[in-house]
Amino acid sequence: MSEIILQTDKLSKRYGNTNTLKECSLRIERGQIYGLVGKNGAGKTTFMRLICGQSIPSSGSINLFGETGQKGIQKSRVRIGCMLETPAFFPDCSAKKNLKIYCMKKGLPDHGHVDELLDFVGLGDVKDKNFKQFSLGMKQRLGLALALLGYPEFLILDEPINGLDPIGIIQIRDLLVKLNQEKGVTILISSHLLKELSTIATHYGFINRGILIGEISAKKLQQECQNVMRLKVNEPSRACAVLENICGLKNYKILPGNIIECYELLEDPEQINRELITNGIEVFSISIQGKDLEEYFLDMLRGVENA
Fold it and tell me: With contact defined as beta carbons under 8 Å apart, do 243 and 272 qualify?
């Protein structure tokens, strides 16, 4: 059985009368790269702050590395590295000096640790350069190096590639994959760039208005985002009955807006169209489409909003 790194049960956070997180229950296992997907203000950062101890839950529970009590969870947080916002670095100090200062704050011995991390994130050649001279991409990499102080087992990153150019995005992405595959680091990451997130995540959680509306593995998502036949008809329920009884269709889904998605019989849309019309169903459109993570998420949101 896979080791549980993080499990929450009905975790909630309220500010006054506003629920920013509502009974969020999710599970992250060792070795996963878990992508938390949601619009601005959906509750992603709130969730991460609760896990990192930067905010106190209003209700619900956290299980972190098997610890559930307050003291145990606090002790387990030394095994976490996080980057939830731009870290506060000293502008007139070098990258190396900044990390050494944080080592002292955290009570960590250096012993070459700082140089090793700077090399790992690609800043070894500029380690003596002052922070104020860094580009945005270099600052993000230094923030990642800071999160990696002490060699954490679990890394929590909120929008780590936000604002980066394409080269910077690729560099951070490659670093995270390397951390996961070579160092065995489990990662919880949020990003607005869903196409980029889909290149590294092994699992996803979808959050909307503070509510976790779904979870799925990357493997299952790939299966569900395969090519589909999308039909728009006047009576979807009756259309599905026709397709089941006459064409043998079994794998399909009815979506809002009188849309039917068929995951089989894709090789003969003309027959599907013909059978529906013969049985008195109006077919407004029929097409073969594929979906990506962004489209999957948007479809999920439409389903929630129309429920």
Answer: yes
**DSSP-assigned states of every residue in 53-94:** TSS--SEEEEEETTB-SHHHHHHHGGGEEEESS-----TTSB
Each residue of 282-306: b (16+ CB within 10 Å) or e? Answer: ebeebeeeebebeebbebbbeeeee
Residue 233 amino acid letter: V
Q: Which residue has the tokens 């870290």?
A: 87
Residues 26 and 212: beta-carbon distance below 8 Å:
yes
Q: How high is the pLDDT of residue 1?
A: 65
Judged by DSSP in three states, 149 sits in: coil
| DSSP-derived 3-state class of residue 116 | helix
- Asked whether the beta carbons of 49 and 84 are under 8 A apart, the reply is yes
Contact 286, 269 (CB under 8 A): yes
pTM greater than 0.85: no
Name the one residue in this structure whose structure tokens are 């002052």.
Answer: 130
For the stretch 37-56, pLDDT in tens is 999 889 999 999 999 999 99
d(CA 287, CA 229): 6
Which residues of the chain fall below pLDDT 70? 1, 307
Tokens of 172: 């951070």
Going by their DSSP bridges, the two strands 4-15 and 18-24 should be labelled as antiparallel
- At residue 76, the pLDDT reads 95
- The pLDDT value recorded for residue 262 is 87
